[in-house]
Fold:
Amino acid sequence: MPRQLSENAIGVVKATVPAIETYGLAITQRMYERMFEDPDIRGLFNQSHHGDTGSQPKALAAAVLAYAKNIDNLAALTGAVERIAQRHVGLNILPEHYPFVADALLGAIKDVLGAAATPEVLAAWGEAYWFLADILIGREATIYGEHAAAPGGWTGWRDFVIAEKRRESDVITSFVLRPADGRPILRHKPGQHLTFWLDIPGHAALKRNYSISSAPSDDHYRISVKREPQGLVSGWLHDQAAVGTILKTAAPAGEFVAPDTLERPLVLVSGGVGVTPLLSMLGALASAKPRHPLHFVHAAISGATHALGAEARALAEASGGSVRVTTFYETPGANDVRGEAYDEEGRVTAAWLAANTPLAGADYYLCGPRPFLRAVAGSLRQHGVPTEQIRYEFFGPTDEALAA
Structure:
């Protein structure tokens, strides 16, 4: 059982909320600087989230603030805790790593707040950190145990071979991965991702995670990767990785997963490469012949960037009418034929969603770039869809630095 937070610690942490609101980003930036002085700790994290944009320190600063504000109402943070635990499992974070983060966090608070970081403040934040760390360690131990015990499951890193490499569009390529040992694999939950440990010549070890774009299987996974501008790993995968290349892979992880059963109609809405986890969901749910309608809505720039569209349409055709697919092209190309490659021109709008989906009568799963998610989720809320019926995933940093 996790240790209990003292009333004194709760009061002191809540009293620091104004300071966290003002200096939270500086604290998290300094925390990562301190942590990454140790190359072994640096190697635990996905460094693509710590580049010029500073997106991961910003995400962590928001998480630290949310924790401080809800320190006396931790039920409000249940979803965030599960996201962190799932991400940690993908990265193979272990209990022995937590003290390094504690030292970096408390040191950063002292560095940034100076004299305001009194012994009482540091003690309270240390207590709060370890309280949440114990919860995460316990949850992660459970997930690791489930992975080890499940048919085809494993912990740590396992070698997978690229068995097929297929170009899906001008910017997205798919990779079919089979276990190098030829043994069965863990059937993933539709929507989960794989984390990879990559040893690219001339670079320190790199970690990246990519959503599984195929339905659950006993013998292979498929990822579909977008080539990112300046993307070291995505560029290497597109240009250098080939059939026969071995990739070190952690077991599937992630809490953005398809429901086991549909309690009401389900609408899957994706933008760009956000199609990948939702196509995995579509493949699994369509084959089960759901008793409620399933609507798959995808937005792409044009046919040049649209990936996996034919597969989505084939799944709809094989569903016996329970699945409907609608594709938006923002700027169709000269060879893009409406009614064949796509259905609607422009962007997914509130008016279209209101006219073509059940709104409050459905669950919505969204995945794509942040601006796309903000627009779609905002439209749904404005039309009365309850927040608990909207789930989303975006590709980028989450609260991966633990206990935040």
In short: Residues 397-404 have pLDDT under 50 and may be disordered. The radius of gyration is 22 Å. The first helix runs from residue 7 to 15. The chain has three domains: 7-149, 158-249, 266-393.
